[in-house]
Amino acid sequence: MALNLIMLGPPGAGKGTQAERFAREYGLPKISTGDILREAVHSGSELGAAVKEVMDRGELVNDGLITGIVEERLNRSDVKPGFVLDGFPRTVPQAAWLDTLMGGDRGPLIVVEMRVPDEELVRRVQARRVCRVCGTNVSAFGTDPTRVLRCQKCGGELMVRSDDNVEIVRGRLRVYWRDTRPVIDFYSGRPTYRVLDGSQPPEDVRRALIDAVQEVAAAAGVVAQPGARA
Q: Is 148's pLDDT higher than 80?
């Protein structure tokens, strides 16, 4: 049975980093709507320009566009053993749509919410940098702000994302609590839902995530062990 994980949490909670590590360790595709949308922005297409305008305002792209992107991705062959979803669903209609899509033999949805205080999130996001070339996100907390930083993956220059200034970050948090918090209420009563303290050191969060997933998976009859899944 497939191992399907949804990572929920506000901007800057670290869910993207933890989702990537978990997906790599368990041999699952990590599906990030944020990455997909940023790829569209970098492409310079008309769609990319429209997406950039919405993201720069700290708002969410409409449900129709997002569900279309996600459905196409979840219907690819590499998703058969399961997936890790980062950044979706963000609204109750998206969550209800996903339930419908997952009907049948696609396996249960394990939902993990990462909680971090808002002020810690603002501090984290202010320190975030993105590679101008490959789009990788890294933390530059504690580094010299006048120094040009380079991406360890490709050597590209690291820059502040246009949607990472304090005003926009606080706006994104308001949008999160207004529009995405109901998604947590949608899932929180399920036996497959767990909450993690995302303010812990990353390695502690990683261990807690693995423990939570293995506990839920075992109860659902799903094998959740590191290694490539076929």
A: no
Please state whether beta strands 30-32 and 82-86 pair in parallel, antiparallel, or not at all (unpaired). Answer: parallel
Residue 216 has pLDDT above 90, yes or no: yes
Other C-beta atoms lying within 10 Å of the C-beta of residue 125: 24
The residue assigned the tokens 């702000």 is: 145
Domains assigned to the chain: 3-116+166-220 (3.40.50.300)
Nearest to 58 by CA among 11, 13, 19: 11
| DSSP one-letter string for 20-55 | HHHHHHHT--EEEHHHHHHHHHHHT-HHHHHHHHHH
The stretch 153-168 carries a mean pLDDT of 80
pTM of the complete model: 0.76
Whether the pLDDT of residue 21 is over 60: the answer is: yes
Residues annotated as catalytic (active site), given as ranges: 15, 90, 128, 161, 172
